[in-house]
Amino acid sequence: MRAQSSKVGTPNAEIMKHLSTPPYVLPNHVKLVAPPMVYISGEEMTHYTMNLIMDQWIKPHVDIKNWEFYDLSCKSRDNTDDKVLGDAVEAGKRLGSIFKEPTVTPSAVQAKAWGLKKAWGSPNGAMRRGWNGITISRDTIHIEGVKLGFDKPVFFERHAVGGEYGAGWKSVGAGRLVTTFFPEDGSAPIFCDDRVLKDKSNVVVTYHNPLDNVADLAHHFFTRCLAGNIVPYVVTKKTVFKWQEGFWTKMKEVFDAHYKEKFQAAGLVPDGKLQHLISDAATMQIIRWTNGGFGMAAHNYDGDMLTDEVAQVHRSPGFITSNLIGKNEDGSLIKEFEASHGTVADLWEMHKAGKETSMNPLGMVEALLGAMAHSADLLVTQAHADLASQAEAKLKAEKVHIFVTTLRKALHNTFRYGQGTRDMAGPTGLTTERFIDKVSWRLGRYMAAYNDDVCEGDIVVPQRAQQFINNIDRKKLQCLFDEYDTNKDGSISVLEVERMLADLGVAPLTEVSKLGSASSDKPKDV
Prior knowledge:
Helix 2 (44-58) runs parallel beside helix 15, helix 7 runs parallel beside helix 8 and helix 12 (362-381) runs antiparallel to helix 13. The chain contains 19 helices and 16 strands. The chain is an alpha/beta fold.
């Protein structure tokens, strides 16, 4: 494996022959041996695309004999009575680094249509429990020179446990509802709630928010924010939902004890006071703070909703990461990496019908690279203490990180050069297969340490406006224009634009207004 620095001059004809035809590698190319990790496969369009990527981007350059593969497609789960899920969870706990393709959680209708024994539930709960899930890190993905949504990175930590996702519930009639807690030590029961239900039809929901691992979440969040030059915020609705106070309290305790002075020294929190955002305010600030450079940590449900908003501002779910962070008994981190989007069923139907598709694999590839990088880091931290073992582990890890960096460069530059998929490059964008081949070609040249075929002056950077223009509903756009063209003169004045932006809630605010709306903890009517 070669470093990625460029050679001077033009490769000779024999070298060009190898770098111009698949698999775009030189005859003396030596594969790096990847450390152990878990690869979980899914189905539909994302699985098809990842098979192409594995065959063209990974296998020509990487020996993956140490990877363990688990098929979590519906058929595989059905055929094994879901034993494969348990096996995948066990392997992830043992190896500590996991890549997961998007999977399908079948509905009852799909289960019947596909001949399944049952509608198998989402595997996420089993994974979060099995890997002692702490947080789900969801960060914006950025491509140098390409304008997406946020100018600078946005980090998000979503508490991986508790809340509505693990709730118990029953449909009941009129009567009395008593919630009682029975302590593990056998001491006297505690009555949590006692209420009368007068309606003839009610739904009773019970859930809890575990707080023991919030300190781990806090350390992970603040460490990442500090390293990324990110301003941290904690998001709750504690002014109304009093039970959320504990999350804020634990986050603040960790910040004050371990990070306050560091954030002050970095100029990220000049007054040393960790900022709290009411969830309502966070919803608005995500739209307004398009410069980025901020991070948020929130409860499970709030984090789920707010990160969907972050994804939409930044372009789509394909442009943010989704990494489950867990913890082994020995303190080592378990990290599972996946894309934030699903299996892209609409493109899969087109592909099965023989139609062209243009699938953007950015989110999935960033996840795969994240898993590879973490497996390399674990190789170093788990190496024997003697110097020889440490040196060997660091050398192997360095080779993995070089490959990760090189593949990311090849992928990102293909977008930068206007050779991306159609969601980025418009109608002239490449098909799924041609895009993967183009990145494969570019990766081969980078791995062989030869220059790209595109000079800096020839770069065609896809602009964000151009990326969206083909999806604009022009009839609705005309209606919006007509609504705010109040004097019907065929143009919109500054005052009319002001009213439109204010109505849409995206008008730029003065600094005083920003501070007042963002950090207020005053209760409001709900």
